[in-house]
Amino acid sequence: MPEKIFIAGAAGAIGQRLSRLLVSRGFSVTGTTRSASRADGLRALGVTPVIVDVFDAAALTAQMKAAAPDIVMHQLTDLSGGFDADKLEETLSRNSRIRSEGTDHLVRAALVAGARRMVAQSIAWMYRPGTPPYRESDPLDLEATGNKAVSMAGVVSLETQVLHTPGLDGIVLRYGYLYGPGTGNEKPIGPSSVHVDAAAYAAMLAGERGKPGLYNIAELGGEADSAKAIAELGWSADFRLP
C-alpha cells in the first residue's frame, strides 16, 4: 500500500505544489483547508480534502485518526492580515500562534493517530546576526526585540515541539523567502530565497528519506547554507514542477 500523508495547510502556496508532487509519486494524500470553497481544488489535485481549523483540537484529532497517516506535513501559516505597517503586528501574532498552539494540536493529533514522522515549515532568516552563510548549528537570534521577537517565539515553539516530541521523528525545514506561483513574489527576494516548487520538493524528500533534524532550504549564495539538504536529502534549488 502507498504511504499515507496528511498535509496541514494543503491549500497554501507550498501545500498545493507539495500535493501535486506527492500524488504524482503515488502517495495517498489527505489535505486540510479552513475554507470549503478550496476543497474542490484539492480534490482536483487528487487529494482527499478535510475542512478543519487547526485550533479545533478535537476536530483535528478526529480527522487525523480517520486519515491514519504515516507522515504529517505541517505547512500551516496565517498571513491573511497582510504586511501593511498598521497590520504587521497582528499578522505576525496570528502566524506565531499557528506555530505554537497550532503545532501543539498537530503534534498531539499525530501521536494519537499513530503517525511516525512530521515534516514542518520554519524560516531561515532567524539566525543571530553574525558572519553568513548560516548553518543549522548556528544559534537563533533569541535576544530579538519587537516584531522579530514575536516571530521568534513562534519559530522556537514549533521547532522545539517537532524536534523533541518522544515517539515522533521530527524534521524542520527552514525555508528562505518564497517566490513563485501563489507566493505574491515573481522573483527572488531577500538575502535567502527559494522557489515554492523547490520548497515543496524539499518537503517530499524529507518525508521520504530525511533523518530527523534541521535543514536550511534556500538557494545558493544567500545567507542560509543549504549544503546539508543537498548532501543528505538530494535536494536541488533548481527543481521545478512540469
Can you walk through the features of this model?
This protein is 39% helix and 18% strand. The chain has 242 residues and is of the alpha/beta class. The chain has one domain (4-233): 3-Layer(aba) Sandwich (Rossmann fold), CATH 3.40.50. Strands 3-2-1-4-5-6-9 form a 7-stranded parallel β-sheet, sandwiched between helices. It has a two-stranded parallel ribbon with strand order 7-8. Helix 3 packs across helix 4 and helix 4 runs parallel beside helix 5 (146-163). The longest helix has 26 residues, at 88-113. It is globular and about 45 Å long.
Strand order of the largest sheet: 3-2-1-4-5-6-9
Helix percentage: 25-40%
Order of helices and strands: EHEHEHEHEHEEEHEH
Number of domains: 1
Classify the fold: give the CATH topology. Answer: Rossmann fold
Query: In angstroms, what separates the terminal alpha carbons?
Result: 26 Å
User: What oligomeric state do these chains adopt?
Assistant: single chain
How does the SSE layout of this entry go?
Layout: E1 4-8, H1 13-24, E2 28-33, H2 39-44, E3 48-51, H3 57-67, E4 71-74, H4 88-113, E5 117-123, H5 146-163, E6 169-175, E7 177-179, E8 193-195, H6 196-209, E9 213-217, H7 227-233
Parallel strand pairs: 1-2, 1-4, 2-3, 4-5, 5-6, 6-9, 7-8
Helix pairs in contact: 1-6, 3-4, 4-5
